[in-house]
Design goal:
The chain is mostly beta strands. It has two helices and 17 strands. The chain starts with a strand and ends with a strand. 23% of the residues are buried.
Length: 362
């Protein structure tokens, strides 16, 4: 694999802007609304300079195939294009059959990619008074970027992580992992100090506890449906070429039982009949991040209290739990058409985790 650089490339940089308004309500409450926007320009991407040319049909009686002004010499009647003769169909080989085969993938890195993020943020905050405080916010956002597959500057493998479609705009779509497009996010926190009781026994047992909680709720994240094979027969991004969407209803029944049933599964997050591999020699009609996975919500909580033993000795008890309700939060299903689990959820985030602590101070 060879890599070239555009001498006019620039490092990525971020442009940011925001607008907000706040208002105090009463003595303890603060509400606000904000617009947040940013754009990253000069994201690195890569173009394949030595792709395989797709020759349709079969060779003529002379063993020749013709496409885009190129001639491929092969066996009479043989299929002109297949994954087996990818290197024979590369541009350098077609131009110079003697020296051309010495080159396989030739990547050209550029800085023409972009990523934009726009969000509306609504929030409220109550300061600690009357024994409790809380915060809450809701974000409605959209992230769009130029996808470059799995490529990372100077670290991509041959033929992967390059722009798939003829122009960079064909690889622009909703952001996918690791910074995936998530349209709706809700976060809330709260702290409650249990008051003292007049009854001595109740006061000794139940007072002075501090209870805290964090609630996180989000809609599903965007992911891409891919053919899983080199349908374009151009030797570029073979596992991640976009699939075709052939029906409007892209989601299945989205049920959550029998997820691991090996045969005849009934639970499908995606409607598998809505997708097909791209036609041979063509690009799929989908783009990055056109479908969304399941949403999730998690409640984390904490409980603590300081017990006074003597004037100079105290003991602190703490109990903390993540996902204390043990709610199952599913991960995105497989988006690869050739996978046996295509469209099916197969994994989930962590379940409930509890930890306890006791600290003695003297």
């Amino acid at each position: 694999m060879f890599t070239t650089f555009d001498h006019n490339t620039h490092p990525p940089y971020v442009q940011q802007w925001n607008l907000g308004i706040q208002r105090q309500v009463g003595q303890d409450w603060l509400v606000s609304a904000s617009y947040i926007g940013n754009e990253i320009v000069h994201l690195y991407g890569s173009t394949e300079l030595n792709p395989a040319i797709y020759f349709p049909g079969s060779a003529n009686a002379s063993g020749q195939c013709f496409a885009e002004g190129y001639v491929l010499n092969t066996t009479p009647g043989a299929v002109c294009s297949s994954t087996a003769n990818t290197n024979s169909r590369r541009v350098a080989t077609l131009i110079n059959p003697v020296e051309g085969p010495k080159f396989a993938n030739v990547g050209k890195w550029d800085d023409g990619g972009t990523r934009s993020y726009n969000a509306l943020l609504l929030s409220t905050q109550k300061r600690l008074s009357r024994g409790f405080s809380m915060t809450g916010n809701y974000t409605w956002s959209h992230c769009i970027r130029t996808a470059i597959g799995s490529g990372t500057l100077l670290q991509s493998s041959a033929g992967n992580g390059v722009y798939l479609t003829p122009t960079r705009t064909g690889d622009r779509g909703n952001c996918t992992a690791p910074a995936a497009d998530i349209r709706h996010i809700v976060n809330a926190t709260g702290i409650v100090n249990v008051p003292k009781f007049s009854n001595p026994w109740m006061n000794a047992v139940a007072s002075n506890w501090r209870v805290s909680g964090i609630l996180n709720v989000s809609s599903g994240s965007a992911f891409t449906v891919v053919s899983g094979t080199d349908r374009a027969l151009n030797g570029k991004n073979a596992p991640t070429q976009y699939a075709n969407q052939v029906a409007e209803k892209v989601y299945g029944n989205q049920c959550e039982n029998d997820l691991r049933q090996a045969s005849g599964p009934k639970c499908l997050w995606l409607n598998t009949a809505a997708f097909l591999p791209a036609d041979t020699g063509t690009f799929g009609n989908l783009r990055p991040g056109t479908v969304f996975g399941p949403g999730n919500w998690t409640l984390n909580a904490g409980l603590s209290r300081i017990f006074k033993i003597t004037e100079g000795q105290t003991m602190e008890f703490r109990a903390e739990g993540t996902n204390v309700l043990n709610h199952t939060n599913f991960m995105n299903p497989s988006g690869t058409y050739t996978s046996s689990t295509f469209g099916r959820i197969q994994s989930a985030r962590d379940g409930r985790v509890m930890q306890f602590g006791l600290k003695y101070l003297f």
